Protein backbone atom coordinates (compact mmCIF):
# COMPACT_ATOMS: atom_id res chain seq x y z
CA UNK A 1 0.00 0.00 0.00
CA UNK A 2 2.87 2.38 0.88
CA UNK A 3 6.29 1.51 -0.46
CA UNK A 4 9.30 3.73 0.18
CA UNK A 5 12.48 2.92 -1.68
CA UNK A 6 15.83 4.52 -0.98
CA UNK A 7 14.13 7.64 0.37
CA UNK A 8 16.63 10.45 0.96
CA UNK A 9 16.08 13.86 2.51
CA UNK A 10 18.51 16.50 3.60
CA UNK A 11 18.11 19.92 5.15
CA UNK A 12 21.12 21.89 3.92
CA UNK A 13 24.07 19.67 4.82
CA UNK A 14 22.10 17.67 7.37
CA UNK A 15 21.27 14.31 5.77
CA UNK A 16 18.26 13.10 7.75
CA UNK A 17 17.01 10.23 5.59
CA UNK A 18 19.83 8.29 3.92
CA UNK A 19 18.03 5.61 1.92
CA UNK A 20 14.93 4.64 3.85
CA UNK A 21 13.04 1.54 2.72
CA UNK A 22 9.76 0.31 4.12
CA UNK A 23 6.62 -1.39 3.02
CA UNK A 24 3.23 -0.89 4.62
CA UNK A 25 0.54 -3.38 3.73
CA UNK A 26 -3.15 -2.63 3.27
CA UNK A 27 -5.18 -2.64 6.49
CA UNK A 28 -2.24 -2.93 8.85
CA UNK A 29 -1.13 -0.66 11.65
CA UNK A 30 2.56 0.06 11.04
CA UNK A 31 4.56 1.31 14.01
CA UNK A 32 7.28 3.73 12.93
CA UNK A 33 9.79 3.84 15.76
CA UNK A 34 12.79 6.02 16.32
CA UNK A 35 14.62 8.25 18.79
CA UNK A 36 13.92 11.99 18.94
CA UNK A 37 15.33 13.57 15.83
CA UNK A 38 15.57 10.29 13.90
CA UNK A 39 13.47 11.71 11.06
CA UNK A 40 9.99 10.37 11.79
CA UNK A 41 8.17 13.68 11.26
CA UNK A 42 10.25 14.33 8.15
CA UNK A 43 9.11 10.98 6.72
CA UNK A 44 5.49 11.71 7.70
CA UNK A 45 5.61 15.14 6.06
CA UNK A 46 6.98 13.53 2.89
CA UNK A 47 4.23 10.89 2.86
CA UNK A 48 1.62 13.58 3.43
CA UNK A 49 3.00 15.52 0.45
CA UNK A 50 3.88 18.54 2.62
CA UNK A 51 7.60 18.48 1.85
CA UNK A 52 9.57 17.08 -1.05
CA UNK A 53 12.34 14.50 -0.93
CA UNK A 54 15.75 14.58 -2.59
CA UNK A 55 16.04 11.04 -3.84
CA UNK A 56 14.35 7.65 -3.97
CA UNK A 57 10.69 7.01 -4.60
CA UNK A 58 7.39 6.42 -2.88
CA UNK A 59 4.55 4.37 -4.26
CA UNK A 60 1.06 4.51 -2.85
CA UNK A 61 -1.34 1.90 -4.19
CA UNK A 62 1.40 1.20 -6.76
CA UNK A 63 1.23 4.81 -8.02
CA UNK A 64 4.35 6.95 -7.97
CA UNK A 65 3.80 9.77 -5.51
CA UNK A 66 5.50 12.54 -7.47
CA UNK A 67 3.63 11.74 -10.68
CA UNK A 68 0.22 11.19 -9.05
CA UNK A 69 0.11 13.78 -6.29
CA UNK A 70 -3.38 15.04 -7.22
CA UNK A 71 -4.87 11.54 -7.62
CA UNK A 72 -3.48 10.46 -4.30
CA UNK A 73 -4.57 13.56 -2.38
CA UNK A 74 -7.82 12.05 -1.08
CA UNK A 75 -6.16 8.74 -0.16
CA UNK A 76 -4.20 10.06 2.79
CA UNK A 77 -5.25 11.66 6.08
CA UNK A 78 -2.62 13.24 8.33
CA UNK A 79 -2.59 14.11 11.99
CA UNK A 80 0.52 16.21 12.72
CA UNK A 81 2.25 16.00 16.10
CA UNK A 82 0.64 19.21 17.36
CA UNK A 83 -2.62 19.80 15.52
CA UNK A 84 -3.88 23.41 15.53
CA UNK A 85 -7.53 24.43 15.86
CA UNK A 86 -9.51 27.63 16.24
CA UNK A 87 -10.04 27.60 20.03
CA UNK A 88 -13.20 29.74 19.86
CA UNK A 89 -14.99 27.12 17.74
CA UNK A 90 -16.77 24.05 19.05
CA UNK A 91 -15.74 20.63 17.71
CA UNK A 92 -19.01 20.47 15.77
CA UNK A 93 -18.39 23.86 14.18
CA UNK A 94 -14.78 23.03 13.39
CA UNK A 95 -15.68 19.73 11.72
CA UNK A 96 -18.45 21.49 9.75
CA UNK A 97 -15.85 24.02 8.61
CA UNK A 98 -13.60 21.16 7.40
CA UNK A 99 -16.59 19.61 5.61
CA UNK A 100 -17.31 22.94 3.86
CA UNK A 101 -13.66 23.28 2.79
CA UNK A 102 -13.91 19.78 1.32
CA UNK A 103 -17.07 20.80 -0.56
CA UNK A 104 -19.55 18.56 1.29
CA UNK A 105 -23.23 19.63 1.36
CA UNK A 106 -25.11 20.43 4.61
CA UNK A 107 -26.71 16.97 4.99
CA UNK A 108 -23.43 15.18 4.32
CA UNK A 109 -21.67 17.43 6.83
CA UNK A 110 -24.30 16.64 9.46
CA UNK A 111 -24.01 12.87 8.98
CA UNK A 112 -20.19 12.86 8.69
CA UNK A 113 -19.84 15.00 11.84
CA UNK A 114 -22.06 12.56 13.73
CA UNK A 115 -20.09 9.50 12.53
CA UNK A 116 -16.73 11.04 13.36
CA UNK A 117 -17.70 12.48 16.74
CA UNK A 118 -18.93 9.00 17.63
CA UNK A 119 -15.70 7.41 16.36
CA UNK A 120 -13.51 9.69 18.48
CA UNK A 121 -15.92 9.67 21.43
CA UNK A 122 -16.53 13.41 21.51
CA UNK A 123 -20.32 13.37 21.01
CA UNK A 124 -20.99 14.70 24.50
CA UNK A 125 -18.53 17.58 24.32
CA UNK A 126 -19.02 18.48 20.66
CA UNK A 127 -20.75 21.77 21.51
CA UNK A 128 -18.04 22.96 23.87
CA UNK A 129 -15.30 25.34 22.72
CA UNK A 130 -12.10 23.55 21.65
CA UNK A 131 -10.05 26.04 23.72
CA UNK A 132 -11.29 24.26 26.86
CA UNK A 133 -10.48 20.75 25.63
CA UNK A 134 -7.80 18.57 27.22
CA UNK A 135 -4.79 17.54 25.08
CA UNK A 136 -6.31 14.08 24.66
CA UNK A 137 -9.62 15.54 23.43
CA UNK A 138 -7.72 17.75 20.96
CA UNK A 139 -5.80 14.73 19.64
CA UNK A 140 -9.06 12.83 19.22
CA UNK A 141 -10.59 15.80 17.40
CA UNK A 142 -7.45 15.85 15.23
CA UNK A 143 -8.09 12.22 14.28
CA UNK A 144 -11.67 13.13 13.33
CA UNK A 145 -10.39 15.99 11.14
CA UNK A 146 -7.83 13.77 9.41
CA UNK A 147 -10.53 11.14 8.79
CA UNK A 148 -13.09 13.59 7.38
CA UNK A 149 -12.42 12.78 3.75
CA UNK A 150 -12.61 9.03 4.43
CA UNK A 151 -8.95 8.33 3.56
CA UNK A 152 -7.61 4.81 3.02
CA UNK A 153 -4.38 5.67 4.82
CA UNK A 154 -4.01 7.60 8.04
CA UNK A 155 -0.67 9.05 9.11
CA UNK A 156 -0.49 9.67 12.85
CA UNK A 157 2.59 11.51 14.11
CA UNK A 158 3.16 10.76 17.79
CA UNK A 159 -0.58 10.98 18.56
CA UNK A 160 -0.27 9.82 22.15
CA UNK A 161 3.21 10.99 23.19
CA UNK A 162 2.14 14.06 25.18
CA UNK A 163 -0.87 12.42 26.80
CA UNK A 164 -1.49 10.95 30.24
CA UNK A 165 -2.24 7.19 30.48
CA UNK A 166 -6.01 7.67 30.13
CA UNK A 167 -5.61 9.99 27.13
CA UNK A 168 -3.20 7.50 25.56
CA UNK A 169 -5.56 4.60 26.07
CA UNK A 170 -8.40 6.56 24.41
CA UNK A 171 -6.23 7.27 21.37
CA UNK A 172 -5.01 3.67 21.10
CA UNK A 173 -8.62 2.43 21.42
CA UNK A 174 -9.55 4.66 18.46
CA UNK A 175 -6.62 3.31 16.42
CA UNK A 176 -7.96 -0.20 17.06
CA UNK A 177 -11.39 0.92 15.82
CA UNK A 178 -9.79 2.42 12.70
CA UNK A 179 -8.05 -0.88 12.06
CA UNK A 180 -11.41 -2.66 12.31
CA UNK A 181 -12.71 -0.23 9.68
CA UNK A 182 -9.91 -1.40 7.36
CA UNK A 183 -7.92 1.85 7.48
CA UNK A 184 -4.16 1.49 6.98
CA UNK A 185 -2.45 3.34 9.82
CA UNK A 186 1.14 4.59 9.77
CA UNK A 187 1.86 5.45 13.37
CA UNK A 188 5.00 7.20 14.49
CA UNK A 189 5.74 6.96 18.19
CA UNK A 190 8.35 6.22 20.79
CA UNK A 191 5.84 4.77 23.24
CA UNK A 192 6.57 1.10 22.99
CA UNK A 193 3.61 -0.12 25.00
CA UNK A 194 1.27 1.53 22.47
CA UNK A 195 3.11 -0.22 19.64
CA UNK A 196 2.82 -3.50 21.49
CA UNK A 197 -0.93 -3.04 21.86
CA UNK A 198 -1.95 -1.99 18.42
CA UNK A 199 0.71 -2.53 15.73
CA UNK A 200 0.94 -5.42 13.30
CA UNK A 201 4.40 -4.51 12.08
CA UNK A 202 7.18 -2.19 13.14
CA UNK A 203 9.99 -0.38 11.39
CA UNK A 204 12.85 1.12 13.39
CA UNK A 205 14.44 4.27 11.97
CA UNK A 206 18.01 4.88 13.09
CA UNK A 207 20.91 6.76 11.54
CA UNK A 208 18.76 7.73 8.55
CA UNK A 209 17.82 4.15 7.65
CA UNK A 210 15.34 1.48 8.63
CA UNK A 211 17.47 -0.90 10.66
CA UNK A 212 14.70 -3.40 11.29
CA UNK A 213 11.28 -4.04 9.79
CA UNK A 214 9.33 -6.99 11.04
CA UNK A 215 5.92 -8.29 12.07
CA UNK A 216 5.41 -7.70 15.75
CA UNK A 217 4.61 -11.35 16.57
CA UNK A 218 7.74 -12.57 14.75
CA UNK A 219 9.81 -9.92 16.54
CA UNK A 220 8.44 -11.09 19.86
CA UNK A 221 9.17 -14.73 19.04
CA UNK A 222 12.69 -13.87 17.97
CA UNK A 223 13.62 -11.52 20.77
CA UNK A 224 11.23 -11.92 23.69
CA UNK A 225 12.67 -14.58 25.88
CA UNK A 226 12.49 -15.48 29.56
CA UNK A 227 14.92 -13.84 31.94
CA UNK A 228 15.78 -15.33 35.33
CA UNK A 229 16.76 -12.74 37.94
CA UNK A 230 18.66 -14.30 40.82
CA UNK A 231 19.56 -12.41 43.96
CA UNK A 232 22.43 -13.91 45.96
CA UNK A 233 23.22 -13.24 49.61
CA UNK A 234 26.60 -11.74 48.73
CA UNK A 235 28.16 -9.98 45.75
CA UNK A 236 29.22 -12.35 42.99
CA UNK A 237 32.38 -12.19 40.90
CA UNK A 238 31.82 -11.43 37.23
CA UNK A 239 34.18 -14.18 36.07
CA UNK A 240 31.73 -16.75 37.37
CA UNK A 241 29.98 -16.19 34.02
CA UNK A 242 32.82 -18.05 32.27
CA UNK A 243 32.14 -21.21 34.26
CA UNK A 244 28.56 -21.47 32.97
CA UNK A 245 28.22 -23.03 29.55
CA UNK A 246 24.77 -24.05 28.34
CA UNK A 247 23.34 -23.93 24.79
CA UNK A 248 20.09 -22.47 26.01
CA UNK A 249 21.71 -19.51 27.79
CA UNK A 250 21.93 -16.47 25.53
CA UNK A 251 23.53 -14.01 27.92
CA UNK A 252 24.40 -13.60 31.59
CA UNK A 253 24.73 -10.25 33.33
CA UNK A 254 26.12 -9.73 36.81
CA UNK A 255 25.73 -6.63 38.95
CA UNK A 256 26.79 -6.80 42.62
CA UNK A 257 24.69 -9.65 44.11
CA UNK A 258 22.23 -9.85 41.18
CA UNK A 259 22.57 -12.20 38.23
CA UNK A 260 20.31 -12.02 35.14
CA UNK A 261 20.26 -15.11 32.99
CA UNK A 262 18.73 -14.57 29.52
CA UNK A 263 17.62 -17.88 28.07
CA UNK A 264 16.77 -18.41 24.42
CA UNK A 265 13.82 -20.77 24.87
CA UNK A 266 11.31 -21.84 27.49
CA UNK A 267 13.31 -24.26 29.59
CA UNK A 268 12.47 -26.63 32.41
CA UNK A 269 12.92 -24.60 35.61
CA UNK A 270 14.89 -27.51 37.09
CA UNK A 271 17.65 -26.76 34.56
CA UNK A 272 18.08 -23.24 35.91
CA UNK A 273 18.13 -24.64 39.46
CA UNK A 274 21.01 -26.93 38.45
CA UNK A 275 22.98 -23.92 37.14
CA UNK A 276 22.38 -22.04 40.39
CA UNK A 277 23.38 -25.10 42.42
CA UNK A 278 26.71 -25.21 40.54
CA UNK A 279 27.40 -21.60 41.52
CA UNK A 280 27.17 -22.88 45.06
CA UNK A 281 26.24 -19.63 46.82
CA UNK A 282 23.21 -18.99 49.05
CA UNK A 283 20.40 -17.24 47.20
CA UNK A 284 17.78 -14.80 48.46
CA UNK A 285 15.33 -14.85 45.57
CA UNK A 286 14.68 -16.18 42.09
CA UNK A 287 12.27 -14.50 39.67
CA UNK A 288 11.22 -15.31 36.15
CA UNK A 289 10.18 -12.40 33.88
CA UNK A 290 9.80 -11.81 30.17
CA UNK A 291 11.63 -9.13 28.24
CA UNK A 292 9.42 -6.49 26.59
CA UNK A 293 9.48 -4.41 23.43
CA UNK A 294 11.69 -1.85 25.15
CA UNK A 295 14.36 -4.55 25.64
CA UNK A 296 14.07 -5.40 21.92
CA UNK A 297 14.36 -1.76 20.88
CA UNK A 298 17.44 -1.17 23.05
CA UNK A 299 19.06 -4.39 21.83
CA UNK A 300 18.45 -3.74 18.13
CA UNK A 301 19.50 -0.08 18.33
CA UNK A 302 22.64 -0.81 20.37
CA UNK A 303 23.63 -3.65 18.00
CA UNK A 304 23.42 -1.14 15.18
CA UNK A 305 25.42 1.63 16.87
N1 LIG B 1 12.54 22.30 8.43
C1 LIG B 1 13.71 21.85 8.87
N2 LIG B 1 14.86 22.50 8.60
C2 LIG B 1 16.05 22.04 9.02
N3 LIG B 1 16.21 20.91 9.76
C3 LIG B 1 15.10 20.22 10.08
C4 LIG B 1 13.80 20.65 9.66
N4 LIG B 1 12.89 19.75 10.12
C5 LIG B 1 13.60 18.81 10.80
N5 LIG B 1 14.91 19.09 10.77
C6 LIG B 1 15.99 18.28 11.37
O1 LIG B 1 15.85 16.96 10.88
C7 LIG B 1 16.12 16.00 11.89
C8 LIG B 1 14.93 15.06 12.02
O2 LIG B 1 13.82 15.78 12.55
P1 LIG B 1 12.38 15.11 12.67
O3 LIG B 1 11.48 16.16 13.28
O4 LIG B 1 11.98 14.54 11.39
O5 LIG B 1 12.67 13.93 13.71
P2 LIG B 1 11.67 13.09 14.61
O6 LIG B 1 12.13 11.68 14.55
O7 LIG B 1 10.25 13.36 14.19
O8 LIG B 1 11.93 13.69 16.05
P3 LIG B 1 10.90 13.92 17.27
O9 LIG B 1 10.60 12.58 17.84
O10 LIG B 1 11.73 14.78 18.20
O11 LIG B 1 9.70 14.65 16.73
C9 LIG B 1 16.44 16.79 13.14
O12 LIG B 1 17.84 16.89 13.23
C10 LIG B 1 15.83 18.15 12.87
O13 LIG B 1 16.54 19.15 13.55
From TrEMBL:
Source organism: Anaeromonas frigoriresistens
Keywords for the protein's UniProt record, in alphabetical order: ATP-binding, Nucleotide-binding, Transport
Stated family: Belongs to the ABC transporter superfamily.
Record SUPFAM superfamilies: P-loop containing nucleoside triphosphate hydrolases
Signal peptide positions on this chain: none
Pfam families (UniProt xref): ABC_tran (PF00005), DrrA1-3_C (PF13732)
Gene Ontology MF, one: ATP hydrolysis activity
Keyword Oxidoreductase: no
ABC transporter domain residues: 2-232
Name used for this protein in its record: ABC transporter ATP-binding protein
UniProt xrefs under InterPro entries: AAA+_ATPase (IPR003593), ABC_transporter-like_ATP-bd (IPR003439), DrrA1/2-like_C (IPR025302), P-loop_NTPase (IPR027417)
Amino acid sequence: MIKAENLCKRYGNNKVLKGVNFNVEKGEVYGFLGHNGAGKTTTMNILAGIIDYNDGNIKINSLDMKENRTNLKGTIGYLPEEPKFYPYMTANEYLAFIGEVLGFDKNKIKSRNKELLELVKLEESCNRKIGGYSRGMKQRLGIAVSMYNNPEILLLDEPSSALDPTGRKDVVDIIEDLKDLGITVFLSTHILSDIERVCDRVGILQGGKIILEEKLDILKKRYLHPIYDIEFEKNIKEDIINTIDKDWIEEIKVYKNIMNIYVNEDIDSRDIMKVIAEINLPILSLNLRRSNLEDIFIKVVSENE
